Amino acid sequence: MAFHLSFYQEGDYIFHGGEPSDRAYIIEKGSVDILAVDDEAVIHTLTTGELFGEMGVLDQSVRSTAARAKTKVTLLEIKPGQITDRLSETDPIIQALIGVLLKRLRALLPKNGDQPTDDLLSHVASVIEQSGLSKFRLESELRTAVNSEKVQTVFQPIVDLKTNRVAGFEALSRWLHPKLGAISPFEFISLAEETDMIIEVGSLVFNRAIELLSQLPDSVFITINVSARQLNSTEFLPAVSQRLAANHIKPNRLKLEITETMMVDINQTAQWIERCHRAGFLVCADDFGTGYSGLEQLLDLSFDVLKIDQVFIRSVLNNDVNATLVETMVSLAKKLGMQLVAEGVEQESQHQLLTSMSVNYGQGYYYGKAMSIADIMAQASQLFSD
Ligand code: C2E
Ligand code: CA
Ligand code: CA
Questions:
Q1: pTM, whole model, 2 decimals?
Q2: Which protein residue has the closest C-alpha to ligand 1 atom 46?
Q3: Distance between CA 341 and CA 359 in Å, rounded?
Q4: Residue 24 CA to chain centroid, in angstroms?
């Protein structure tokens, strides 16, 4: 949609009260007086860069104020579609806030005879209802679930490909919503990551991991997904260390997984890794190969483990490029003294190939789905007997 500029001389009216609201304006140059409709009193004066006339556009009512050029002005015109399109693409929480503010502002303004045609307002309201408010609602339900420990932790086996025995587990969160059913961690973890709730989710996961570790042989490890907010919090690592010590569990039985998409700032990632190492934890690069970071930069970081993402494993048998990539990762990891985990192993043939490539560990439905602590303990004698 092309932008359109318009020009006014000092004293020109841009719009009068009661006129249809067919566009909003951004002041490119000069200043504009906003006037009350019935008397000529100036309510406020706006200058370069400010937006006006948007309220009438958003709810398609007639102008409830007038606008007059205080100086010679240049205006950038914005058509209703340009506002509503942007609005429907923006973050739902922001949409909800705009909707609420708009209604409040409307209620404060003097009423004139004409009623707004509610079309646009109800469109905005339905967008908000569909996404914004439902997100607010979901967030508050998640908070309740976290507080009452209804967010579950399950553990997926990680198998040592030399011995074919379970060597450890990855802790994964599960939320069974009372009405909506199982909600994917991709959805509720990213919701929790928008606020400090991820710290509480993480804390639940750590408690359960410690509970499981304390019942399993010392050789078994657990890997845990951590988010940037947790790593940026100064209390996080000391709290975990303290809880491990209180349960007489060595920190090297916990490995922290950092996804490649979190590694936007390489210096920050290096700092995270250093802090984890100082606390005695091993660090895994999760979803390896899918992120934006350059391979060289990533390999400069002192990860202990690389987790090759499922996308490479899925087609390792029928896609030569991916097979070569996995081989390259194996030889790089060997040179750098890092261990490798192949994620998303679903078939016997993939397992065979990865074993022949000397990948250290495998994880995926072929070995087993994530299980509850009770299920693991019920099988523990088989899983960990000599
Ligand atoms: P992830 O860390 O890459 O975890 C592995 C995901 O792959 C899990 O999905 C797991 O169930 C799934 N998976 C395992 N084996 C197979 C397989 O053979 N085939 C296929 N198709 N999938 C397999 P899930 O549990 O849905 O978790 C999704 C993501 O959510 C995780 O990806 C992780 O990034 C995040 N996540 C889960 N729990 C937590 C948590 O407690 N904290 C944080 N920060 N992130 C979490
Ligand atoms: Ca992971
Ligand atoms: Ca992964």
A1: 0.74
A2: 225
A3: 7
A4: 33
